Amino acid sequence: MAKTLKVGAGGADSPQALLDAELRFNPSGTANFLGSILQASTAYSIIGQDLDGTIKLWNEGARRLYGYEPREMIGRANSSILHVADDVASGLPARIMATAVQAGKFEGTVVRRRKDGGTFTARMVMTPRRDPKGNPIGFLIISSDMTEEILLVQKLKDTNTELLAANHHTTAFLATMSHELRTPLNSILGFSELLIDSVDDTLPAKTRARFLEQIHESGKHLLSLINDILDISKVEAGQMELRLERFAVADLISKVVGIVEPLATQKEIRLEFEASKAGLILADPGKLKQMILNLVSNAIKFTSRGGTATISAARVGERLEIVVSDNGIGIAERDLPRMFKEFQQLDSGVNRSQEGTGLGLALTRSLARLHGGDVRVKSTIGKGSRFTIDLPIEAHLAKPVSNGPDRISEGMVGDDSRPFVLIVEDDSASSELLAWQIERAGFRTKIARTGVEALAIAQSERPVAITLDIMLPDMDGWEILKRLKSNDATKLIPAIVVSVVDNPELGAVLGSIDYFVKPLAVKELVKRLSKLNLKVEKQARVEA
Question: Where in the sequence of the chain do the CATH 3.30.565.10 domains occur?
Answer without folding.
Answer: 245-392
